[in-house]
Amino acid sequence: MIRPKVLVARAIFPETIARLEQHFEVETNQSDESWSKAQLIARLQGKAGAFTTGTERIDAELLDACPDLRICANMAVGYNNFDVDAMTAHGVLATNAPDVLTETTADFGFALLMATARRVTESEHYLRRGEWTKWSYDMFAGSEVHGSTLGIIGMGRIGQGIAKRGAHGFGMKVVYHNRSRLDAALEAECKASYVSKEELLKTADHVVLVVPYSAASHHTIGAAELAQMKPTATLINIARGGIVDDAALAAALRDKRIAAAGLDVFEGEPKVHPDLLKVPNVVLTPHIASATVPTRQAMAGLAVDNLVAYLTRGEAKTPLNPSVLSAARK
Ligand code: GLV
Fold it and tell me: Which of 11, 12, 146, 169: disulfide with 16, CB 3.0–4.6 Å?
């Protein structure tokens, strides 16, 4: 039997490759070369499946040029690298990797909040520079976390995980804003109250962003929103670059219009706005919110599950455009 061909676009766990090789003829990129779009298109010729990681843009131009492609399995919960409408129009299944990273990502959201509020990295840099010569009463005094008000914009699974950590672990008052309100049972479980975005920005001591990126969520936080926040507030972005206007944020941090920010994602990453690198009151991490070995293994495993299920049985665990599945079955 001829085995379908699959391209793995980025370096990945050897065991992930080994699992794929049980079912497919696999081309890998274990040296993790950065491929241009033309190189990606060239590698995808004859491939029925692609294992992608969130950095490969799958759009109409690529799909037109890759007629054999039937599925792209993203090893990420976010899928703004996929033009899902174009994929559907081309009959290409899109899958993502939800759920398996929820708790790990919520942990990291909280870690970034704590590091930002309590000035962990800023004080560490001071110590490493050899500037710590004596104690002083206000040295790196930060903002309170326990008992403060946590505002979450985007109350999906990860947002709910952060709410529970805040409410149950740190006695925080939790308010949230979301496209749609959670049902009462879920609100009670998260001890969270629904408020308008404006109310959230005005009242929260810590604002955490967990909304998926789309044209509608572009610059959810810009200069106008930063102006509504408390001057003592912190802003945490673990969602996607582009949800925050990074230039406006850098200016607000420089002028102390808000106290601090913690950012795991950036507009145009891996480039970081140069003004963010100049301000001390920001904690910067390189898009690592889901980065624990077991979670990354589970995300890769789910992408493989989707490739195997679709290319061998016409099924999928986490389809984003399930109409492609039903059309394929006809
Ligand atoms: C990471 O950013 C993801 O979407 O999984």
Answer: 12
